[in-house]
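User: We ran a pulldown and think these components assemble together. Before we commit to crystallization trials, I'd like a predicted model of the whole complex to look at. Sequences follow.
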Amino acid sequence: EIVMTQFPATLSVFPGERATLSCRASESVSSNLAWYQQKPGQAPRLLMSGASTWAAGIPARFSGSGSGTEFTLTISSLQSEDFAVYYCQQYNNWPWTFGQGTKVEIK
Amino acid sequence: EVQLVQSGAEVKKPGESLKISCRASAYSFTSHWIGWVRQMPGKGLEWMGIIYPGDSATRYSPSFQGQVTMSADKSTNTAYLQWSSLKASDSARYYCARLSPYSTVLDLWGRGTLVTVSS
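Assistant: Here's a predicted model for the assembly, 226 residues in total across the polymer chains.
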């Protein structure tokens, strides 16, 4: 099973600042990497697939990069609605696996 | 509206059986895989498995193989997740979600069903 490791576990950021979240796979997942956002009390929402392709309705301040084992989700200027937990997920090898999440909180 | 509507919260005792549901609307239910994801209290997301409602093909994550059963009813556009004998450790929120046909990611989620198992 591929282990997905996200860091940092918690990221404290001022509104308007840039946030960079990292995700590392225990072996190559090519570009088969998705990012999800989950706000308290809500279901997760798809942000990105293919490591860097926006899902429908996702604002351009979100961007994804990486391939192989190292991936990054960048939020260029944090808005109040972006404070949430973010999960990466690989879908290259079954069983598909999630990272443990990065919580983005207000500084 | 394209959506997945999940059944309501359940409170059960250890050893009891349970079947929760996920009803799809406004899209072709039989053409998209449905995934099930567990979220234990205060924890992250865990893949349980996927089912293709078109022919009820299933794939289970090894951690959940033999622990749960996924099924689907094409006549009612409903997917199910069931347990034959619940344990306290099954207490969690369970999400169903649709797999995109383009990139096998979860592009549409239900709101989750909270399952509490307690004596």
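The radius of gyration of chain A is 13 Å. That may be worth checking against your pulldown data before setting up trials.

User: Thanks, that helps.
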